[in-house]
Design a protein that fits this description.
The chain is mainly beta. The chain has one domain. The chain is built from no helices and 8 strands. Strands 1-2-7 form a 3-stranded antiparallel sheet, with no helix packed on it. It has a 3-stranded mixed sheet with strand order 4-5-8, with no helix packed on it. Strands 3-6 form a two-stranded antiparallel sheet. A hairpin with a 4-residue loop joins β1 and β2. It is elongated, with a radius of gyration of 14 Å. It starts with a strand and ends with a strand.
């Protein structure tokens, strides 16, 4: 994880593979902490998928610079 600019952008690298896609959402941000939700989205129906692993990078923009606030990462799996 890293910050960019004035610290109001957070960057991170996720992992995805096959038919799954990774994304990142800001779940919560306040003066005490920031919570990022790392989402893995997979197809609801079974299908043929490749066996590759990818490491996409993402950035999210906060309402204010991160400064000394801790960042918590949570994981959620979704199907579409």
């Amino acid at each position: 994880m890293w910050t960019e600019g004035d610290g109001s952008r957070i960057g991170l690298v996720a992992q995805e593979g096959g038919c799954s896609k990774a994304s990142v959402e800001i779940a919560e941000q306040n003066e005490q902490h920031v919570v990022l939700n790392m989402v893995e989205t997979s197809p609801a129906k079974e299908q043929m998928c490749t066996m590759d692993i990818r490491y996409p990078s993402f950035t999210v923009t906060l309402n204010a610079p991160l400064a000394d606030r801790p960042v918590a990462l949570v994981y959620q799996k979704r199907t579409v």
